[in-house]
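ZP: hey, is the LCMDX3IU complex queued? I don't see it on the tracker
AM: it wasn't, my bad. submitting now with these inputs:
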Amino acid sequence: MSSILRRCTKLTHSGILSMLPGSNGRSCALQYFASEKRYSTSSKIKVDLDSNTGVAIMQFQSPPVNSLSLDFLTEFAINIEKLELDRSCRGVIITSALPKVFSAGLDILEMYQKSPEHYVEFWKAVQEAWFKLYGSSKVTIAAINGNSPAGGCLLAMCCDYRIMAENPRYSIGLNETQLGIVAPFWFKDTMQNVVGHRETEKGLQLGKLYTAPEALKVGLVDELVPEEKVVSSAAEAMSKWLAIPDHARQLSKSMMRKPTIDRLLAAREADITNFVSFTSKDSIQKSLGMYMEMLKKRRS
Ligand SMILES: CCCCC/C=C\C/C=C\C=C\CC(=O)SCCNC(=O)CCNC(=O)[C@H](O)C(C)(C)COP(=O)(O)OP(=O)(O)OC[C@H]1O[C@@H](n2cnc3c(N)ncnc32)[C@H](O)[C@@H]1OP(=O)(O)O
């Protein structure tokens, strides 16, 4: 990994990168990884695995805002599973290829005016993505290079370490109550495991979207760095995590996360039933419809 950083630094200093269109530290890291094995290219997610370092970089590339649709979540779970089974992979960096947004969270259209059967399928995909990422034995680092509300925040919180662009216009948090919906207990558990009970209680009730500096202050993210350095800083952090023997780190991770995972495993079906009955309510559909309208108005 340090070879990646040395190479990035060299290129940046030599000015070669500045000759590339749209070049910056972030693209340097991406270009380096891209020169390695293209692991998978699906329409919404790109994964490159560096066979020398064992580090995969997963880039979300689903315009306009990387919302977590059924198709996106399915691709995501498949990719994480594939990397999990690959013994040559030791760590995964998750980031966005789109400007200004890491992920807009769950795709609201998947929860709006659809059939109960669709809600079941969608929620299973949300659960599956969480199980795969939260339960991953690999080192996972979120390189948060844009806004990351709700489900986007959940994905980031599932990772072992979070680095966010220090842009104060970017925010992150579980803002579900602002949409008139309630974050499920395992979203809450995941946040509580990151920032503790009190901050989760405030954050969840208020549907708080933390600015990048606020997120650092409460421990929702671990580091803020200039936007162009988010991916190279993630690579740097990754090298520290990979210096620890895998078996010891993996057992420690599993020891910390197993109770949270077991809790959803035990309530998986009930959680789906709750989601379907909650989402199907007229009042919830109305709230979601109004929220989508508000997003559109804000744009015009
Ligand atoms: C008691 C029992 C409980 C049981 C459990 C029950 C229920 C739990 C249920 C659900 C949990 C849900 C978690 C979620 O993740 S909900 C999603 C929350 N997401 C948001 O609030 C983000 C909304 N989006 C934004 O704030 C901005 O888009 C963003 C800051 C991300 C980017 O801003 P930007 O200005 O760049 O882009 P926009 O112009 O706003 O958007 C472009 C385009 O995209 C559409 N869009 C945005 N976000 C979403 C989304 N999450 N899903 C679908 N579509 C989205 C937006 O409407 C624009 O569309 P258009 O105008 O171009 O058509």
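AM: back. The pocket of LCMDX3IU is lined by residues 64-65, 67, 100-101, 104-109, 147, 149-151, 175-176, 179, 181-182, 184, 274-275, 278, 292, 295-296, 299 (CB under 6 Å).
ZP: great, adding it to the tracker
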